[in-house]
Specification:
six-stranded mixed beta sheet, Endo/exonu/phosph_ase_sf, Deoxyribonuclease I, Chain A, AP_endonuc_1, 7 helices, 25% strand, hydrolase, Endo/exonuclease/phosphatase, EC 3.1.11.2
Length: 269
């Protein structure tokens, strides 16, 4: 058995589009043991066979009932002991927002939290999701603790937590993704539910590292990004994290999504 665990999370911004831009090549060369995908925006049957069932991977697909929207997936080299779609929510379990697998001693989940939009029903939806999901995070951690397991929730959380988590924070204080109430909710994930932000634990004093850049203007070239893709771990697992990186493309044309993969390595010895 390997003494390390490598986990990557990536919002693919439409997997069919990403497939033609470099996702397949990235997956073929990644050293990750588990890959969490968000914003797949496709039913499994709509994906090419080598994308739907890549060689050497076990796959869990959780598409949205709304065609062409959301969708998450979890890919693992080891066969999961169990897998689940949704978190027991009447409203959200069919929306392609959450899926999780059980590996020995560990539950890994892929999350695509709603982005929201101030002053619209989309923000109301986001607030309802936040309320339900915080309860799930607490329950998940307690259930895992009772079973002697760790938890890792990876994905696009669509909230920049602090000012260091986005370049242009001053002009975004009234925008979804950096609202005071959203940031306070993320604090509750850490303080109340007891999770640890793996990247920030390893990089406490740096701006970013950003994981999303708008396609508008020269955001990527100017590194005017947001850090909204997180790996949130239970404390026991977080303490074993030895590295965390954002796999930022070298140039704008080499990007296969407006997000970059966030990869963490854990020492299991």
């Amino acid at each position: 058995m390997s003494t390390t665990l490598t986990v990557s999370t990536a919002n693919v911004n439409g997997l069919r589009a990403a497939t033609g831009k470099g996702y397949v090549e990235w997956l073929a060369t990644t050293e990750a043991d588990v890959v969490c995908l968000q914003e797949v925006r496709a039913e499994p049957a709509q994906l090419a066979a080598h994308v739907r069932d890549p060689e050497g991977w076990h796959t869990l697909w959780a598409p949205s009932a709304a065609k062409g929207r959301a969708g998450v997936a979890v890919l693992s080299r080891a066969e999961p002991q169990a897998q689940r779609i949704g978190f027991g929510s009447t409203e959200f379990d069919a929306t392609g927002r959450y899926a999780e697998i059980d590996l020995p001693g560990l539950t890994v989940a892929s999350l695509y939290l709603p982005s929201g939009e101030v002053g619209t029903p989309r923000q109301d939806e986001k607030e309802r999701f936040l309320a339900e999901f915080l309860d799930h995070l607490k329950t998940l951690r307690q259930r895992a603790a009772d079973d002697g397991r760790e938890v890792l929730v990876c994905g696009d959380w669509n909230i920049a937590h602090h000012e260091v988590d986005l370049k242009n924070w001053k002009t975004n204080q009234k925008n979804a993704g950096f609202l005071p109430e959203e940031r306070a909710w993320l604090t509750r994930v850490l303080d109340e539910a007891g999770y640890v932000d793996v990247v920030r634990r390893l990089h406490p004093d740096v701006a970013g590292p950003y994981s999303w850049w708008s396609y508008r203007g020269r955001a990527f070239d100017n590194d005017a990004g947001w850090r909204i893709d997180y790996q949130m771990a239970t404390p026991g697992l977080a303490a074993r994290a030895v590295s965390a990186t954002v796999e930022r493309a070298a140039t704008h044309p080499e990007r296969w999504s407006d997000h970059a993969p966030v990869t963490a390595v854990f020492n299991l010895e």
